[in-house]
Amino acid sequence: MQAYVYEQPRELSETEFADYLNPATTAVVSIDMHRGHLDDSPDCPCPAPRARDLVAPLDAFHDRVRALGVRLIHVRSTLRANGEDDIRGIPAAWRRTFPLHVGPIPNADAHAIEGSRWTEWRTRVEPGDMRVDTKRRLSAFYPSDLDFLLRNQRIETVVLDGGFTDCCVLSTAFDANNHNYRVIVLRDLVRGTDDKLEAAALSMVSLHLGLVMESGELLRVWGQRPH
Amino acid sequence: MQAYVYEQPRELSETEFADYLNPATTAVVSIDMHRGHLDDSPDCPCPAPRARDLVAPLDAFHDRVRALGVRLIHVRSTLRANGEDDIRGIPAAWRRTFPLHVGPIPNADAHAIEGSRWTEWRTRVEPGDMRVDTKRRLSAFYPSDLDFLLRNQRIETVVLDGGFTDCCVLSTAFDANNHNYRVIVLRDLVRGTDDKLEAAALSMVSLHLGLVMESGELLRVWGQRPH
Amino acid sequence: MQAYVYEQPRELSETEFADYLNPATTAVVSIDMHRGHLDDSPDCPCPAPRARDLVAPLDAFHDRVRALGVRLIHVRSTLRANGEDDIRGIPAAWRRTFPLHVGPIPNADAHAIEGSRWTEWRTRVEPGDMRVDTKRRLSAFYPSDLDFLLRNQRIETVVLDGGFTDCCVLSTAFDANNHNYRVIVLRDLVRGTDDKLEAAALSMVSLHLGLVMESGELLRVWGQRPH
Amino acid sequence: MQAYVYEQPRELSETEFADYLNPATTAVVSIDMHRGHLDDSPDCPCPAPRARDLVAPLDAFHDRVRALGVRLIHVRSTLRANGEDDIRGIPAAWRRTFPLHVGPIPNADAHAIEGSRWTEWRTRVEPGDMRVDTKRRLSAFYPSDLDFLLRNQRIETVVLDGGFTDCCVLSTAFDANNHNYRVIVLRDLVRGTDDKLEAAALSMVSLHLGLVMESGELLRVWGQRPH
Fold it and tell me: So what's the ipTM on this one?
């Protein structure tokens, strides 16, 4: 099968990585595909415009995932409405550091506020999917109950797609690795701050954390397995 | 004061980042400066040769840290001697992925084995320093007791130095951020897999996680504070 | 001030326990006062009938807490609607063990299901209160984000009230203790399985975990502090 | 098989509790059988004299456990030598509360100090056993790496023995339950503060957390399973 190691396509042995490739013990974890990152308006509180073109391909990929019976979990940042776990507590670091690079983010205080339109999903969430709504910072794992959920479902491999390859996706990949999950990141279904940091984050995954693959290739490998 | 944002030196307001700069609530966390990464022999189990030239400057920096009364914590990977938490449990991902880039690592099974010479410190550890010996994967936080220790010491800012900017240092920076610590990474006192991933990891820190500074500049800022 | 040590009222020094008594760094954590435990109907999924008479005194106590500006957090068990984190995952142990004592619980599968009436609060929750909705098993701490929230609010003392002194309250008290919070359990505002286990759980708290007090006495001590 | 429910011996179906009874996915976790609790001298820093008579039967039981190939993990409290994670950090609550019941404990500051004789094991630890040395408070789980170790070993059931039924054993049982392990506590191989709290803690386990069994009965059930 094909995977990418430090940006280079490589042919890897499916036998050697068999523990990564069992759909029955795998969950796809889709990260932060909500209006707060993707909305095309000036008051989008934490804009990730490069991820907007992921919506359609993610919906298509997730349909294939559901059809194969692979578990699908949507994770989104949500913050208590009164700000107790962020701007009226200990504010997240990105609120001061990211504007040093991209300039002021006028509506950042509205980011991820529970019950606001900024937490609305932009990819499709279906009744059989699972949701994790207590991502509070960058990782999908802490302080959410994602690890608890994965263990209850006896998941051993997580496949990551969604937003900010070099931030929330990478933080989640590190956490998944530290918790001993097998990690696959889908290079065509994640987007980073820019091309350079996106490529670097994927290289880090490929060297230290797991496999970087195209979604089509993963579907092909899953499809050819005996059922 | 000077910090680096996406590789560029920038002048930032000390007032705006005052919560990062209080030595009384800060701990320096030095990561994996042990023989298993730094030994200059063919059987070094997880070679990080670029980090070898950090030993002398880290010892000098840590002396200044101690002199200022800032807490100093040395963290090292350690694995149970019979392999129960890695090669005879669920093996760490890097054992298969890193060789795809650097080639075979003949003695990798000996990495971090408790009681072996591969866990010997190469930087100086003094009686008043603290140690964390239960780093088992990449992050200094999980499954160690580092967070527990920091909270007991009422630490609010962590300053990271040591080994693999794009791996253990970055994983630790993400975890520290997710746990609401203020994060500073010292760009002259960390080393990555290569120049490119090292620079990219520091850029990610500067955009999403905290401040990237030179150690000399941090000492200067600490030194000018009233005591 | 008066506290109870192994069921005996004792006069303790407020000075010696000053770190327990600062309202500014305290949160009251109210546990599982929802219809799934308190409903007076045969299909109540996890009946805790002894706790029903707590509703009125808890509402009154919480009004005093709000008036003093002390933070108030309501925690409730909630399980994903499709059962992925319990009956269609790894089922909670109480589902098999508790009926050995109380007999069959016909509607237990409906316990805490998200969106059902069994998660409706029976005590009053006001807009300025905080809520934690990801208690999945016994402790209010794991796998919820309670610890994350408390740290953001710089809470150092937790005051526990609510349901099952010898089960969820005690599990939460152990976790709070292990996370280094100062713990107070309000003996008049918790209820256990029966008198005997309730008294034993409070004795364990008083010996190993913190202070057991009457709510009126705690209000008196808080009230006499200078503001 | 026989188990105890609220102090009463009961005949339970092995089929119904089959997930508790598989030696291949079980670990025995032995808690705090060290000199700091068991030493018969006036300067014992945290005396648990009732547990002293457990040493011989525990050694005998553990020999049977090893012979059956069941994993065995010894956990002990250990605190950094300079006190940073307890008396010179945020002191453990028991230091003030337990003396309210038992009177002053003159040498309590020496409890569990790393490298001191108070951390010496009193039960036998053999080379094939596993050890967890970062228990810092009451639970064997937090902030240690016990959960990480159990997951690496694909353990699903924990069998608890050792010291303070109503304190560290019960805290560990709650944590194991919250982390979805099947829990067995061996009533003949644990000791509590006194008969009353010991019995109450076992009753709580039996109602909310798992099975309370005699060690001989568990060995009998394990022994009759096909291999």
Answer: 0.98
